[in-house]
Amino acid sequence: MLRRSVAVMMTLPAVGIDSAYAQTTPSTPAAPAAESTTRELDRVVVTARRRAELIQDVPGSVSAISGAEMEKQAIPDITALAETVPNTTLKTSRGTNTTLTAFIRGVGQQDPVAGYEQGVGIYLDDIYLARPQGALTDIYDLERIEILRGPQGTLYGRNTIGGAVKYVTRKLPNKMAFEVKGTLGDYRERDLVLKGSVPLADTVRVGGTLATFNRDGFGQNVINGKQNYNKNVAAGRISVEVTPTSDLFIRLAADRTVDDSNPRQGYRFTPTPAPENAAPLANLFDTRANLYKVNGHDQQVITRGASLLVDYNIDATLSFKSITAHRASDTYAPIDFDSTSFAVWEAPTIYRDKQDSQEFQFTYTGERLQGVAGVFFMKANAFNEFDVLYNAAGGLALYTLDDIDTKTYAAFADLSYTVSPGFSVTVGGRYTDDDRRARIFKKTYIGLAGSPTLGNPAAVGGAPNTDLGKDDLHRTDKKFTPKLGFGWKFAPEHNLYGTVSQGFKGGMFDPRMDLLATGGPTSATSLTKREGVKPEEVTSFELGIKSSTMGGRLQTNAAVFYSDYKNIQIPGSVPTFAANGSINGFAGSLTNAGKAKIAGIELEAVSHLTDQLTVSAMYSHLDAKYKEWLVANGAGLVNIADQAEFQNTPKNSANLSASYDWPLQLNGRTGTVSLMGGASYKSRVYQSEIVRPTGIAATDVTVPQNLLLAQSGYTLLDAGVVWTSTDRKLQLGLHGRNLSDKRYKVAGYAFGAFYNSITGFYGDPRTVKLTASMKF
């Protein structure tokens, strides 16, 4: 994917390696365009440090791409950005359509069950999204996306130990504007986006966007004919912006997304059990899955939110910002672990979450001192209940309810001081108080009809496996995470920087804990489990250089980093056994894996080789190794670190992209044709943490069962041709993605103990689409 700037407001000499031009904020001074006989790269303004600044001046690893460029390249959502951003994995979570799994520099978390916290912070207009459900949305109203790599504990705090992904929406224009965009493509893709804004007065503007995204499935259910991997999503956003004075900006915004797509069902790698006894299917996007409803409700994900932003320039050096937000989501998720045509091992699941947050920021911009300081508060609730239906001994319904309350308080500051011309130091810190209470209830019922809550009021069960209230499960984690850095522009075209930063992710409780399986609620093992797991901590060291040479026609970035990663929280499930040795259920296995060391390099370059030809390249390498992972066996604790692999963390990633532009009149209208193409590569990826039995080589993916989900190295090829009118009011495009039609795994479930159920999910096949947009 090409990562080239598109100027929206002004064209300036290049100083930042980035994929997109980001509009300057009102507080950002405009600079005159440089006169040059050569085509220079554009300046890029981001808010990675919560204040507007050029991306090449940020002492850290930041990538960004504008919404306009994503639309030009017909990028459907942010998962495609992982092809060009170093050491970054962004993908659709297993078995879902709009839940985001994010890993940056080896740090992340992919299980969306209530109680598990992500390791990469997701933000919408500086609003932290506490849960990953609905975080993966189609691009329809964005100004840009920023991806910050490495711990962001100072400014972003909560759970950003791997990095942060920021959605930044557009501000409304000062005049009446309308836009329509449509897409037609393979698999009967039919997308439509309508945008409009109207000034009600000189100081008041109202705008809104409506969007619908529809596509047939890449495969189907061979038993019932239902589409698999289809899309049926509707979304909308409305905002009111008020500028009573030139120093005061107020925005009230609300959004809602409804995903009515079919549940995404997995491909079963192993033959189905009796009585079906069927071989694996020929089409990797096909399925035999049985489960499509949750207590009579079709699969559905609804996310919604509202926010109030107040941005006030107190004087020429000091500004104040208030961000008030509410967000919530409801999810009905029929999860069929076994992908067979009958109930063997499946989970009808309901997720509900809500959050309210408030942040106050003060930004100071002096001659030598610049910085941001503020306070943050969030109150959140994550709720889920699910049955796990297991067809053994006449059938079991394993019911679990999780109700997790979180209150977070934080105070933060990040200050940069210019010691001398070209040299500055940065000092920052954040104090976090993370308070968590949990109710966890788990009970086993007889039969496959489900629990009383999820479809079977007459269900019969014994005593609860786990029954703990919010007074039983309560923990508070407090942490100060500092940051120290420098920036040294030792030559006009070179900016050297270094940072030492820490990240922190609070401790948590195992939402699947089964105290019956650990000797009862008061056994020593159960009492330890009730304490939860320790917080994760990361200390990262980074050294990098950002350069702009060849008169602004070539930009290069290089960074090396090393992270000390402690108390890694690894969720999972294990079978439980009856007295006769048969499997009678499952229990959570959330543990702290001890220690790991992560080291890597990142190289990026973009150049206007000629006024018409732009080439960009990326290469990253990551060496992530567990140093300590203690597990219990008959003789005590054993360190299995040398047998373990990180999940969702390829060692090598690369991308090479190019774009060639030339003028072309279309039906008497002047414009530019852009011919784009790119190739991206990722080496072997493990879909979950792997513990390999002694003697099994890293290249052997036949055993144990979860190694079957490992994806060997692969390359994706994309291309497109786009015509854009000179006034940018009309754009037409033809786009092809994954042109070699590569099949590559992106997620999976490895439940070999339960009817040898190993299922996988795949990235999109080859797709071709036509796009057209018109502005009025």
Instruction: Estimate the mean pLDDT confidence.
Output: 88
Please report which band the strand proportion falls in: under 5%, 5-15%, 15-25%, 25-35%, 35-45% or over 45%: over 45%
Our count of helices gives 2
Shape, please? globular
Give the radius of gyration: 26 Å
Portion in helices: under 10%
Explain the layout of strands and helices:
Blueprint: E1 45-46, E2 53-54, E3 61-66, H1 67-72, E4 88-92, E5 100-104, E6 107-108, E7 120-124, E8 127-128, E9 142-149, E10 163-169, E11 177-185, E12 189-201, E13 204-215, E14 219-220, E15 227-228, E16 231-245, E17 248-259, E18 267-268, E19 293-294, E20 297-298, E21 300-313, E22 318-336, E23 345-365, E24 369-390, E25 396-420, E26 423-446, E27 466-491, E28 494-505, H2 524-530, E29 536-549, E30 554-566, E31 569-570, E32 573-577, E33 583-588, E34 591-592, E35 595-608, E36 613-628, E37 630-633, E38 636-639, E39 644-645, E40 652-663, E41 671-682, E42 690-691, E43 714-725, E44 730-737, E45 745-751, E46 757-762, E47 767-775
Parallel strand pairs: 7-10
Antiparallel strand pairs: 1-2, 3-9, 4-5, 5-6, 7-8, 9-10, 11-12, 11-47, 12-13, 13-16, 14-15, 16-17, 17-21, 18-46, 19-20, 21-22, 22-23, 23-24, 24-25, 25-26, 26-27, 27-28, 28-29, 29-30, 30-35, 31-34, 32-33, 35-36, 36-40, 37-38, 39-42, 40-41, 41-43, 43-44, 44-47, 45-46
